[in-house]
Amino acid sequence: MSVADKPFVRTSILAAEPPPPGERGAVAWIRRNLLATPKDVILTILALALIAWAVPHLVNWLFIQAVWSGPDRTFCATTIQGGVQPDGWSGACWAFVSAKYDQFIFGRYPLDERWRPAIVGILFIVLLVPMLIPSAPRKGLNAILLFAVLPVLAFWLLHGGFGLEVVDTPLWGGLMVTLVLSFVGIAVSLPCGILLALGRRSKMPVIRMLCVTFIEVIRGVPLITVLFMASVMLPLFLPTGWNVDKLLRALIGVSIFTSAYMAEVIRGGLQAIPKGQFEGADSLGLGYWQKTRLIIMPQAIKLVIPSIVNTFIGTFKDTSLVTIIGMFDLLGIVKLNFSDANWASAVTPITGLIFAGFIFWLFCFGMSRYSGFMERHLDTGHKR
């Protein structure tokens, strides 16, 4: 056989060819996603027309005609940059937000003591950031400081310890209360949800029945009901002379409610694990808790990261319901200030609600983006 007749076997993979010029770039993306079919063309044109009509009005109202400073409502009601509007209306009243900003953040916390929640916030950020970075070292120590040491230290600083002036929780409010409620609810709900999910799948009838009952009862009632029960009914079952702080009642209610939903999220992840993973762990001679901690639970949590973060986002937003028990979170303190006669105008409420909505969106969007980052880091195979 001559050399020319010998079969050729390639020893290396061919390099990937670049895509055709018409299939890459902004023009190709627009053609593929916005102009692919006649229906897409019509919808794109309608969407662009709506944006062209709405955006100038929004920019004009939110920024150009907005009132950025002023001592009272008269500036928001009738003036804009020193001139009287023909129709007597101005744009957004950001002067109201500026004047009430400290109260939106700290509630009615004493002015001279607001350095205490500021320190707690700084410590929270310092401990949270390395916890969220996968490559950061000493995760165990960081978790202990964040979830065990910081809550105790924060309570002593905020309520009054180390010889500090006592500040009762009814004076707490604003974004501070929103973050406290959501952080505790999130931190408590994940481990409790895992235990409830494992209990619901337990082979022990009593454990399974208790977990199923707890989950179905809590999921079957609104959060307002749970908060009302924790605030009004719980003290009735306590011995005479005992009293539970209102903030603690809200923390218990939010944590219980979120744990029930988290349990079902985790259970969905457990059911998605192939049976072979359980059998493989058993073949290695691992005990129940070793199998769950080292093999099953890491895979289950990875599968349901979007659902877990979705529950966290829901918890963060649901903290606004604590108004029903007389506490004022960010949204509650904003609405409370609508009754201030010095700032009563037609644009004050909508401006305050836009501010509160933007703050909620900012935190929720951050959690959503971090969820996507963790999915990519753990290689869940989720396509974007």
TrEMBL record:
What residues does the ABC transmembrane type-1 domain cover?
A: 175-364
Answer yes or no on keyword Cell membrane.
Answer: yes
Record key words, sorted: Cell membrane, Membrane, Transmembrane, Transmembrane helix, Transport
Judging by the UniProt lineage, the source's domain of life is Bacteria
Q: How does it sit in the membrane?
A: Multi-pass membrane protein
Q: Which biological process, per GO, is one annotated for this protein? A: amino acid transport
Signal sequence range = none
- Could you tell me one molecular function GO term of this UniProt entry? transmembrane transporter activity
Where can this protein be found? Cell inner membrane; Cell membrane
Residues crossing the lipid bilayer are 41-64, 115-133, 140-159, 171-198, 210-235, 247-266, 344-366
Coiled coil regions in record: none
Q: Which GO terms describe its cellular component?
A: ATP-binding cassette (ABC) transporter complex
Listed Pfam families: BPD_transp_1
**InterPro entries from the entry?**
AA_ABC_transptr_permease_3TM, ArtM/GltK/GlnP/TcyL/YhdX-like, MetI-like, MetI-like_sf
Instruction: Identify the PANTHER family for this entry.
Output: INNER MEMBRANE AMINO-ACID ABC TRANSPORTER PERMEASE PROTEIN YHDY, MEMBRANE COMPONENT OF AMINO ACID ABC TRANSPORTER
Q: Which family does it belong to?
A: Belongs to the binding-protein-dependent transport system permease family. HisMQ subfamily.
What is the name of this protein? ABC transporter permease subunit
Query: Which source organism does the UniProt entry give?
Result: Rhizobium leguminosarum
